[in-house]
Each structure stands twice: as structure tokens, then as C-alpha cells.
Amino acid sequence: MKVIFYVHRTSFIKNWIQNLGEYLKNNDVDVIAFLFDNNNNTTENYNGIRVINISGLHVAGIISKIKAIKPDAFITLGYQSIIELLLVRISKILDMKCIYIQHGIISLKYSSLFSRICTIKFYLSLKKYLYFFLLYSEFLLFYKRKFIIELRILMKRLLSNNFKGMGIDKYLLFSKDAYNIHKRIFNYSDNEVDIIGYPVFMKKSSLKITKTCILRDKKYVLYLHENFIQFNLTKITYEEEREYLTKIIKTTNDNGFLFVIQLHPLESIQNYMEFSKNENVLVIQTNNLAGLVNNSSFVIGHSSTALLIPILLNKPLLLFDYPKLVISYDFYSDVGIKVKSLIYYSEILNSPNEIDVMKYKSFREKYLGTRNNFEDFANSIVKFIKSK
User: Fold this and answer.
1) Is the CB of residue 87 less than 8 Å from the CB of residue 34?
2) Are residues 33 and 151 in the same domain?
3) What pTM does this model have?
4) Which domain holds residue 343?
């Protein structure tokens, strides 16, 4: 069996496809990743995953690639982009099964964030969006006999944000809350859905994090970095960000804690090497994020989906305001501790690192589900592919 994943960033290959691929390969499923990468510098083999960069290809070229692979299923980790709609529609015409995997939190509170980011970055992304529409026009002309049907699906998406005719056959979701919200979007039936959970662990038989971690004997505060500057979501520079973090670092170190910066996987570590001059600061980009979180005393963050991990592992979550963000986002305000000053931060570091157990439990039930492992995701994919 073969499956094609579509992702729009290499970080999804690292954080999702590699983890799923381990179990899919054990079930004799070959994994291929389609990637839209404008930089055109993506390797054909990304840590064991075959990667095909489809940027620059015409529709005929994309279809030719798919036919050469002869996949049994197409899997997407998103649905809002025109390119995702296009690839799903091509897959349906080629008689492939289509699977959607939820990869981040979706809620009524969060549902407009994607649109707001697209609005902010519209002019920067205009060339890409025009290219997507050109591709879709080629697709409509390529399958002339289905022109009216496919045009109607596209117009529903553009004019009313209607995804109900997109053509996805199976939905793998995190929780019952995600089920209810996605149902408004797709209007699926119950047998089209598997509720699994936000995956942090690899195996379903090992839902406990071991102490194996490079910092297992250290007392540290973990900062989960977000690449706001890289994606133009803030008005500050790298130098101003260093000034912002330096103040937090000093308070952390003064209270006897090491400060660990876990960089976003797309960020260049070179931009943060200045911090390495401080022996009480460690800048890393590790795949063992769960282990890093589990061994920390406190976790600091802003809005990243990575903040779901400390909630899942019952770690105190400290929410700091990031300077001059062009969008506001307070999804974690119900469970995290809002830190408004360094004096308050110092008080927290000197208090018992306790959490509100009931708030954490409620949040997990609503957003994270119970089967928080990649093995169950992979098993669900294999079972669906094998089904008639």
C-alpha cells in the first residue's frame, strides 16, 4: 500500500509524517510527502521520508506524479487552502481514498485565526495565492467533462466557505469538541470519523514519559519559542526580541533556574546563539519535546500548539505577553497563569509549582482527547485503507 501526505511546511514532515511513518511502514505502507516549497531546496529524502516538491508543477505534472506512485490514499493535514482543495479533488477523480488529519486545535474561539493571519500576510502571499488559482483553472480545463461540478465546489468554498462537498472520506480528530466543530464545517456522518486524541506519545502502550532527557538532572524553566518574527506576526526585530528575553532570563537565573529555549523547528538557531554566552541559558531544537517538558519545572509560552504538551503532562504553564503582536490570541487563558510582571514571575518561581487539576482535566477532555499517541492514528489510517 502507498499513501501521499500533503503538507505546506517541512516541520509537518518532522513532527507528524515521520512519527506516523514509523507505524505505517510496519504495516507495509509506503509514505510519500507532497510539499509546496517556494524555496525549491527541499531534499528528495527527508529523514527517510520520500519528499516531492510540487511547487512550480502544472496540474498535468501533479497528476502525472500521482499516477506514477499509484497511491491507495491521499492524506491532508489541512483543508482551508485552495491547494488542499485542489489535491483532494484530483485524488477523488483518480479514485483514491481521502483522509483528513486534525493537526492543531480548532475551536470557535480559534476558528478565525487562520483568516486573520492570511489577511495580515495577504500582500506577502499574493503571488502564491494567484498561482493556486491558476492551478485550479488548469484543473478545471484538464477535466472538462467535470467542469461544472468542480467549479460549483470551488465557488461554494470561495463564496460561502462551504467545505461540505470537498470529498474527504475519513476524519481523524482529537476530541468530541473537535468533532462538533468540524461537523459544522463538513457535515459528516459518524462512521466517517475516528476520535483519537492529540498525539504526544509514540506507542499506545507507553503513555508515560520517561526521565530520559539531556536535562534530567537540572532545574530549569522551558521557553517554547514561536517564530513570530520570521512570519511577520510582530513588529519587533531579533535584537528587540533578545532584549525582551534577556529580562526574563535574568529573573529566571536569579531565582536559581536554568533557562532553556526550545526554538521553533523552522527558526534558525544562528539567530539565538548570542544567548549561549550565558552558561545558564541553553538554546536547543530537540525532537524529544515531551521529555523536555516533562522534566521542566515551569513552561513559558504564548500561543503555540506545543503548549498543549505541558497541559497534557500537568506542568505549570506561564503565559507572557509577546511584544507588538499584530494578532491577539488567548486560547490558553483558562489554564495558564498570566504573567504581567517580572516581580510576579519571581514570586511564581519561588512558590510550589502546582496546577489547577480540575481546569487541566476539563481542558484535556475538551480539546486533547484520550488516545494521545501516533500508533492509534497510524492504525486508523491502515484500517480505513484496507476497508472496502
Assistant:
1) yes
2) yes
3) 0.84
4) 220-368
Compute CA distances 332 → 104, 290, 300, 308, 318, whole Å: 14, 18, 12, 9, 10
The span from the CA of 31 to the CA of 296, in Å, is 34
- The verdict on 16 and 149 lying in the same domain is yes
In a domain, 196, yes or no: yes
Number of domains in the chain: 2
**Residue-by-residue pLDDT tens, the chain, 388 positions:** 999 999 987 778 888 898 899 899 999 999 999 998 766 555 677 777 899 999 888 999 999 999 999 999 999 999 988 999 999 999 999 999 999 999 887 765 544 444 444 444 555 566 777 888 889 999 999 999 999 999 999 998 888 888 888 999 999 999 999 999 999 889 899 999 999 999 988 876 555 554 445 566 789 999 999 999 988 889 999 999 999 999 999 999 999 999 999 999 888 899 999 998 899 999 998 877 888 998 999 999 998 889 999 999 999 999 999 999 987 778 898 899 999 999 999 999 999 878 899 999 999 999 999 888 999 999 999 999 999 7
Residue 213 lies in a domain: no
Same-domain status, 172 and 47? yes
Q: Which residues contact 307 (CB under 8 A, 6 or more apart)?
A: 224, 299, 301, 317, 332, 336
Asked if residue 25 is part of any domain, the answer here is: yes
211 lies in a domain?
A: no
Query: What cell was used for 10?
Result: 517541512
Looking at the structure, tell me whether residues 182 and 236 fall in a common domain: no
Q: Is the Cα torsion angle 220, 226, 228, 230 positive or negative in sign?
A: positive
Q: What are the angstrom distances between the C-alpha of 2 and each of 33, 69, 74, 267, 347? A: 11, 8, 9, 32, 54
Q: Which CATH number covers residue 269?
A: 3.40.50.2000
**CB crowding 310-322: b at 16 or more within 10 Å, else e:** bbbbebbbbbbeb
